[in-house]
Write a structure and sequence with these properties.
Chain A: Residues 436-548 form the Fumarate reductase/succinate dehydrogenase flavoprotein-like C-terminal domain. The complex is a heterodimer. By secondary structure, chain A is of the alpha+beta class. Chain A has 16 helices and 21 strands. In chain A, strands 1, 2, 7, 8, 9, 10 and 17 form a seven-stranded mixed sheet that branches. In chain A, strands 3, 4, 5 and 6 form a four-stranded antiparallel sheet that branches. In chain A, helix 5 (214-221) packs across helix 14 (482-507) and helix 12 (431-445) runs antiparallel to helix 13. Chain A starts with a strand and ends with a helix. Chain B has one domain (3-100): Alpha-Beta Plaits (2-Layer Sandwich). In chain B, strand 5 (74-79) and strand 6 (84-89) form a beta hairpin. Chain B is globular. The chains are: A alpha+beta, B mainly beta. Bound molecules: flavin-adenine dinucleotide and iron/sulfur cluster (2 copies).
């Protein structure tokens, strides 16, 4: 394993939606700037967008405004979001959409040339090749891209993040990347709980199984403040193939139980969480399984639906063709997925400022890894990438010329040795064995799918002590190759995320988000809990310390900000 | 395992440094052994079909694992700049093709 030290101005970790957009923005802001993206896979097809997507889920169609977007997101999240962050995303959604259309994304249009609405806040696209479009733009922008290069840990010197350690698994290289500023865009975390499917199908899941929470874990280890891990995201998906239900719901599908009853009608306030919770309850109370019923489908409509699904989730069409179902009466069985930690659907992630700076100097965050603003989806990830890049570029301009002349030889030796010691171990445990153990603990004691997502203190405390044991065992992990080491690293990331998740789940003594965070021992939503549960790992003791942060309305943010919010938007062109 | 690499069709992408499939897989699951690509971590496939589309020789197909009720139908994708052909070949020899783009 060769050591390679490189210097760059801006390091972007993760070449997904947010990372690509950030890198392009940074080069546009300052064409002299050296921008480096490191991507664990290959940016042409990595992360959430690998298979493609068929809609932009956050877009303001005529009649919608940034204010109405905030209102919707806040209401759907039971009153607790970072108003300032959500609003700022609302300001940028349409702008970034036009931008990626310019880059080559095909957005469907009506006969008048207007974007084709899917709902008031979403539009239809042909995005099978979305990731390739982003990657091509990154390349045209003169960004240095290191593919097959996974970030391991930040380089933290005198309290500031000054780069990262990374591993190129194909070239057998240990990278030390010194940077004036770093943007973390590694996406969320899957694989913490037992997946819906098993055996050879265990990775047939909704969120990419390869997004393992690297950015969260690196932040946790470096002492960054994190927020709202307890708001887990559980998706309502088509059973077996775990295909998204949006395409069916927007095609007019109704949620029905075994008896054909439209069970959502029993509830007064239908949020995203409620659609799931109601389904879980039908199952638990013996009225399942539940279905999305599209009724009679004409041949043409059926063909269109299949075509739009191919560019996002080919598995479901494969299932139809495999079983030769004629689809004329289309009724698909639905279920909840394993819980994910993902800041782009729910709001677990780095606690950030409006300018997307984290609590660690030199470090910014964007996309699924950034907290506080649910329902930002792909366009929200772009907006955050743009803001983070502009902030980072500004900060870099203010740093002294010789900033990268850091003496970090001790840090390098330690991290290199850490990797070596796992590779050199003559015997030990393989990652996959402990991965199953982790998932079993979380599944059974921390509200997995088979537990109807229910949480209670006594079980969570058991999970906590079992996880401690597991962490001890993880010292025995071994790897024969760098690719195997990556599997070890990913497991360690999941364990770190799970540890923080448990503390958050234990701390919030109410039920704020049905199914995402359902406490059976505190089953009511309480006014006094309309506040953020944040945490920080104490670097000295390793303990996870909880920090409460108050909820503020958009007006309050404006009143307390050192500059007016409008000035911010003017400066950031949003 | 949800992809199958037909070793008799794979030529190892001699025009490139690495196999197109091994380069593109978002999970780094495929590696070349000598001249041929091999699925190294079959249980970890996400079924994203990126490798299926990337293979210049159409050597890779996607199928449903038995665990989720698969009956052996294989999906191959032929892509050019303008459009994609999604070809489903069933065990009984019947075929369905979708066009997109
Ligand atoms: C299946 C699916 C369908 C979706 N459909 C839609 C839709 O139709 N419409 C919509 O608006 N939104 C959709 N979304 C949401 C949207 O795709 C995400 O919100 C968005 O991609 C998040 O961007 P991101 O950059 O944070 O994460 P990603 O795009 O996932 O990027 C994260 C990147 O970081 C890389 N990475 C991870 N760890 C490391 C490491 N240690 N070192 C280096 N790199 C690393 C990953 O390989 C990946 O490339 C969908 C998401 C999924 C999963
Ligand atoms: S289908 Fe996707 S995850 Fe599976 S091997 Fe191919 S590229 Fe990798
Ligand atoms: S892309 Fe196709 S031809 Fe190339 S190595 Fe992979 S399977 Fe073989």
């Amino acid at each position: 394993m060769e050591k390679k030290i490189i210097k760059t101005d801006l390091l972007v970790i993760g070449g997904g939606a947010a990372g690509c957009y950030a890198a392009v923005t940074a080069r546009r802001e300052d064409p002299e700037l050296k921008v480096t993206v490191i991507e664990k896979a290959h940016i042409e097809r990595s992360g959430c967008l690998a298979a493609g997507i068929n809609a932009i889920n956050a877009y303001l169609n005529p009649g919608e405004t940034p204010e109405s977007y905030l209102h919707y997101v806040k209401n759907d999240s039971y009153g607790l979001v970072r108003d300032d962050l959500v609003y700022s995303i609302g300001r940028g959604l349409n702008k970034v959409t036009r931008e990626v259309e310019d880059w080559g994304l095909k957005i469907l249009k009506d006969e008048n040339g207007n974007y084709l609405k899917r709902s008031s806040r979403s539009i239809k696209i042909e995005g099978e090749n979305f990731k390739e479009i982003l990657a091509a733009k990154v390349e045209r922008s003169g960004v240095q891209v290191l593919n097959k290069t996974a970030a391991l840990n930040y380089i933290k010197k005198d309290g500031r993040i000054c780069g990262a350690f990374a591993l190129n698994i194909k070239e057998d290289k240990f990278y030390v990347i010194k940077a004036k500023a770093v943007i973390c865009a590694t996406g969320g975390a899957a694989g913490i709980y037992e997946p819906n499917n098993s055996g050879q199908a265990k990775h047939k899941m909704w969120y990419p199984p390869f997004n393992t929470g690297a950015g969260y874990a690196m932040g946790i280890r470096a002492g960054a403040e994190m927020t709202t891990f307890e708001m887990r995201f559980v998706a309502l998906r088509v059973k077996d193939v775990i295909a998204p239900t949006g395409s069916f719901a927007f095609a007019g599908g109704q949620q029905v139980n075994e008896q054909g009853e439209e069970y959502l009608k029993k509830y007064s306030r239908i949020t995203t969480a409620m659609r799931l919770y109601a389904t879980v309850r039908e199952n638990k109370e013996g009225r399942g399984p539940c279905y999305l019923d599209l009724g009679h489908l004409e041949a043409e409509k059926k063909e269109k639906l299949a075509q739009s699904l191919l560019g996002m989730c080919p598995g479901i069409v494969l299932k139809w063709e495999d079983s030769q179902s004629d689809l004329s009466e289309l009724k698909v069985e639905i279920e909840g997925t394993e819980p994910y930690i993902v800041g782009g659907h729910c709001q677990s992630g780095y606690w950030i400022d409006l300018d997307r700076s984290t609590s660690l100097p030199g470090l910014f965050a964007a996309g699924d890894v950034a907290g506080g603003s649910p329902k930002k989806y792909v366009t929200g990830a772009f907006v955050e990438g743009e803001i983070a890049a502009k902030s980072a570029v500004k900060e870099i301009a203010e740093l002294p010329q010789n900033f990268l002349n850091l003496n970090i030889s001790e840090l390098i030796t330690n991290e290199y040795q850490r990797v070596k010691s796992v590779l050199d171990k003559p015997e030990g445990i393989e990652a996959v064995r402990l991965e199953e153990k982790l998932q079993q603990i979380m599944e059974n004691y921390a509200g997995g799918r088979t537990q109807y997502y229910e949480l209670e203190a006594s079980k969570l405390k058991q999970a906590r002590s079992k996880l401690k044991e597991l962490k001890n065992e993880s010292k025995m992990l071994k790897a024969e190759s760098l690719r195997d080491f990556l599997a070890v690293q990913e497991l360690l990331e999941r364990i770190d995320v799970a540890e923080v998740l448990l503390e958050h789940l234990l701390y919030r003594e109410e039920t704020r988000w049905p199914a995402y965070q359902s406490r059976v021992d505190f089953s009511e939503r309480k006014k006094e809990w309309r506040k953020f549960v944040n945490s920080r790992q104490n670097p000295a003791s390793g303990e996870i310390e909880i920090i409460e942060r108050e909820y503020k309305s958009l007006e309050e943010y404006a009143a307390f900000a050192s500059r007016s919010q409008e000035d911010f938007y003017l400066e950031y062109n949003l | 395992m949800a992809i199958k690499i037909d070793q008799s069709i794979c030529d190892g992408c001699p025009d490139y440094q690495e196999g197109r499939c091994e380069r593109i897989c978002p999970g780094n699951l495929i590696e070349k052994e000598g001249e041929k690509a091999e699925m190294k971590r079959p249980a970890e496939c996400w079924d994203c079909a990126a490798c299926v589309k990337a293979c210049p020789r159409n050597a890779i197909s996607l199928y449903l694992p038995e665990e989720v009720g698969g009956r052996g139908t294989k999906l191959k994708v032929q892509q050019n700049k303008k459009r994609s052909l999604w070809i489903f070949d069933r065990e009984d020899g019947s075929r369905k093709v979708y066009k997109t783009g």
